[in-house]
């Protein structure tokens, strides 16, 4: 049986999740030139926010059809609160400091958030089971789609469409573009840049929260470390797509997800490559791809060549 | 500006302090009441937090129970045992730091642990240099006792290292025989996590399975940091395998089993003692039914010798289950206690100055009826008790299917 269609779907699903998280990296970077390494943890706290709603707020046995929207709200609330709090108390005081200072702060914040969840969330010292949607998998031809993946399949494109509309068409969105191009001039033109930056953090956190709920539904478990590797991959996706470009983040995510999946599935079939083809090597191939792309297009797949205004 | 950066530094420092206190508060040290005499410490090193904490906490509690039992019985006259537990988070680097810390603590007379073979590798030399005895209840990699060339020429590497667990040299083949002869599966897909334990187990399984005439239709190595095994699951489904053998631990095995079944391959996943944990069933969900695991020894509950342990453990009021290694941990601790008793008796009721070296030598010769049966060690430091059991997931719990010993 030909497994290519199934592997492509696997890759696209994984990639959609990378993309949802990558948006947060790319938006924040585009506007304040900060690599927010705590974004992976903002994603993780979103998953715990959703779980809290399910476990401690809703009555036991609530149908997922009712619970899911509320869990999504919980996830977004937690993620956005933490992201905006981080911006206000950790990053804003450092906005005029040398670039390394906020970067190190972001790494510290990332560790602090991980450990805080580990220490204070009940039973979070090991993986916690995430509620699942009932019902069997769906088959389209030879492709099987898991019930938990349906959410991701629907949520990722819708989120992207909303984001595209917001950034391109609304007044606030145009304010964001202006701030990204030149914050000082934008300020002179009457754009409230502080507000725009907060919105960028909040939007990124919202998409991370959607991704976090999708992660829980897809894998059936969440843990305090889940944001670390996924955050790194999402950051890679953002760079691959062209950091600063929101469509680039999504495309970068999809390319990365598909590349990893296909590397796992097919590299071993190439004669002489059987040692380098396993799932454990998928990350290596993903980064080889990143290096190749950056060699030929240093600005990323969709990135624009802009003068560094450091 | 100056003030601002001050705020930032304070924030960063307090965030760091937060992290530290978070770790510190879990550092457990259950001190038993001192009843005079010399106080000696039995160190414990295990993952007390993180993915594998379910197994690690069971180890810690069981050692604690052994120490308390010895104190209550006044088993060694004039010596009171206490337990200091260190968390290695299943990381070799943390394990080595803990080993150094335990060596530095002069009251430590022996150490029980660790859980992971990879962690043990990083600790062995530290303990051996200090002549401090280490007894692991759970390490199954053959190389730890018999050297890296264990398959061809056995040579003991560290005189201070012992274990009460059976090795993968026996566990992998035992599983292969069960899969081939009893479960009648001829085509297997082999997956491991590339760690010392997982890769070792998958290797010994594969060798024996092929020898029996079985066919390995595919192999994969997964990255233990991810949860996305969909590409691997699709491969398994299309390979036509009748079973999957997984060398690794339950945090990955649970989701792996689930994703393989979800991909449409309704075949059992078989693993070693690393997946024999209740959390495997929790993470694997309903589709884990029918999955198999081999684990060292006979099921603790069925042994007469273990009834007392189980009852005492319950009475001890421990929050966590004793888990897969509880009985072995108790026996590991008890072998140290026996050795201390021997050393103290030989020295006229007092602990000698070179107690660590003497205890290490004494552990080599211990022999007693423990929780898991007769406990003694062979010339490599391996347990002489080589019993194994196959367990299957039924109605959301592990059920013993077959016990036996592997005979070549």
TrEMBL record, chain A:
Keywords: Amino-acid transport, Cell inner membrane, Cell membrane, Membrane, Transmembrane, Transmembrane helix, Transport. GO terms for cellular component: plasma membrane. One of its GO terms (biological process) is D-alanine transmembrane transport. It is a multi-pass membrane protein. The chain crosses the membrane at residues 12-35, 42-58, 64-86, 98-121, 150-168, 196-217, 237-259, 280-296. Its main location: membrane. GO terms for molecular function: L-isoleucine transmembrane transporter activity; L-leucine transmembrane transporter activity; L-phenylalanine transmembrane transporter activity; L-valine transmembrane transporter activity. It is found in: Cell membrane. Signal peptide: none annotated. The keyword Kinase does not apply. Belongs to the binding-protein-dependent transport system permease family. LivHM subfamily. This is Branched-chain amino acid ABC transporter permease. It comes from Streptomyces adustus.
From TrEMBL, chain B:
Residues 1-22 form the signal peptide. Keywords: Signal. InterPro entries: Leu-bd, Peripla_BP_I. SUPFAM superfamilies: Periplasmic binding protein-like I. It comes from the Bacteria. Pfam families: Peripla_BP_6 (PF13458). Belongs to the leucine-binding protein family. This is Branched-chain amino acid ABC transporter substrate-binding protein.
């Amino acid at each position: 049986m030909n497994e290519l269609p199934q592997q492509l779907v696997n890759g696209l699903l994984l990639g959609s999740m990378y993309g949802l998280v990558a948006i947060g990296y790319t938006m924040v970077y585009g506007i304040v030139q900060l690599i927010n390494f705590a974004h992976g943890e903002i994603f993780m706290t979103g998953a715990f926010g959703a779980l809290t709603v399910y476990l401690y707020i809703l009555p036991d046995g609530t149908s997922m059809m009712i619970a899911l929207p509320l869990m999504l709200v919980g996830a977004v609330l937690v993620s956005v609160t933490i992201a905006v709090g981080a911006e206000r108390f950790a990053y804003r005081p450092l906005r005029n400091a040398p670039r390394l200072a906020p970067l190190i702060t972001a790494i510290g914040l990332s560790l602090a958030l991980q450990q805080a969840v580990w220490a204070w969330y009940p039973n979070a010292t090991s993986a916690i089971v995430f509620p699942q949607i009932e019902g069997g998998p769906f088959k389209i031809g030879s492709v099987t789609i898991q019930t938990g993946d349906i959410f991701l399949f629907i949520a990722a494109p819708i989120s992207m469409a909303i984001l595209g509309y917001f950034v391109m068409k609304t007044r606030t969105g145009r304010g964001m573009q202006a701030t990204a191009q030149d914050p000082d001039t934008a300020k002179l033109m009457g754009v409230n840049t502080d507000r725009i930056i907060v919105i960028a953090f909040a939007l990124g956190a919202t998409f991370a929260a959607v991704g976090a709920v999708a992660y829980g539904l897809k894998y059936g478990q969440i843990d305090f470390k889940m944001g670390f590797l996924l955050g790194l991959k999402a950051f890679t996706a953002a760079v691959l797509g062209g950091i600063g470009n929101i469509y680039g983040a999504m495309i970068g995510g999809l390319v990365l997800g598909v590349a990893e999946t296909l590397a796992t599935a097919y590299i071993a079939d190439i004669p002489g490559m059987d040692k380098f083809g396993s799932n454990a090597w998928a990350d290596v191939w993903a980064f080889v791809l990143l290096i190749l792309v950056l060699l030929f297009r240093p600005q990323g797949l969709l990135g624009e060549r802009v003068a560094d205004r450091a | 500006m100056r003030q601002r950066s001050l705020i930032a530094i304070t924030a960063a420092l307090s965030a760091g302090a937060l992290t530290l206190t978070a770790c510190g508060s879990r550092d457990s040290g259950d001190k038993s009441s001192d009843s005079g005499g010399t106080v000696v410490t039995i160190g414990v090193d295990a993952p007390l937090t993180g993915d594998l904490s379910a197994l690690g906490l069971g180890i810690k509690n069981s050692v604690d129970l052994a120490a308390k039992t010895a104190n209550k019985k006044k088993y060694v006259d004039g010596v009171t045992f206490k337990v200091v537990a260190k968390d290695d988070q299943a990381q070799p680097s943390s394990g080595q730091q803990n080993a150094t810390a335990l060596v530095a603590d002069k009251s430590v007379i022996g150490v029980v642990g660790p859980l992971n073979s990879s962690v043990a590798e990083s600790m062995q030399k530290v303990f051996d240099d200090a002549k401090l005895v280490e007894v692991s209840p759970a390490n199954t990699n053959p190389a730890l006792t018999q050297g890296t060339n264990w398959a061809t020429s056995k040579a003991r590497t560290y005189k201070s290292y012992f274990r009460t667990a059976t090795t993968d040299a026996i566990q992998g083949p035992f599983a292969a025989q069960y899969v081939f002869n009893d479960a009648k599966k001829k085509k297997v897909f082999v997956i491991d996590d590339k760690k010392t334990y997982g890769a070792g187990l998958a290797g010994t399984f594969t060798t024996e399975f092929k020898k029996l005439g079985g066919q390995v239709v595919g192999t994969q190595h997964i990255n233990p940091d991810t949860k996305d095994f969909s590409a691997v699951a699709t491969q398994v489904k299309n390979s036509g395998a009748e079973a999957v053998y997984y060398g690794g631990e339950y945090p990955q095995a649970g989701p792996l089993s689930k994703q393989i079944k979800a991909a449409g391959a309704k075949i059992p996943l078989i693993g070693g003692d690393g997946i024999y944990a209740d959390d495997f069933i929790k993470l694997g969900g309903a589709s884990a039914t029918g999955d198999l695991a081999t684990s060292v020894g006979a099921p603790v509950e069925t042994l007469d010798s273990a009834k007392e342990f189980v009852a005492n453990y319950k009475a001890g009021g421990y929050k966590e289950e004793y888990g897969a290694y509880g009985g072995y941990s108790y026996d590991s601790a008890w072998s140290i206690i026996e050795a201390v008793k021997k050393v103290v008796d030989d020295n006229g009721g007092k602990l000698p100055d070179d107690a660590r070296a003497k205890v290490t030598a004494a552990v080599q010769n211990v022999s007693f009826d423990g929780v898991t049966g007769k406990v003694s060690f062979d010339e490599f430091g391996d347990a002489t008790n080589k019993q194994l059991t196959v367990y299957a997931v039924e109605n959301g719990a592990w059920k013993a299917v077959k016990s036996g010993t592997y005979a070549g």
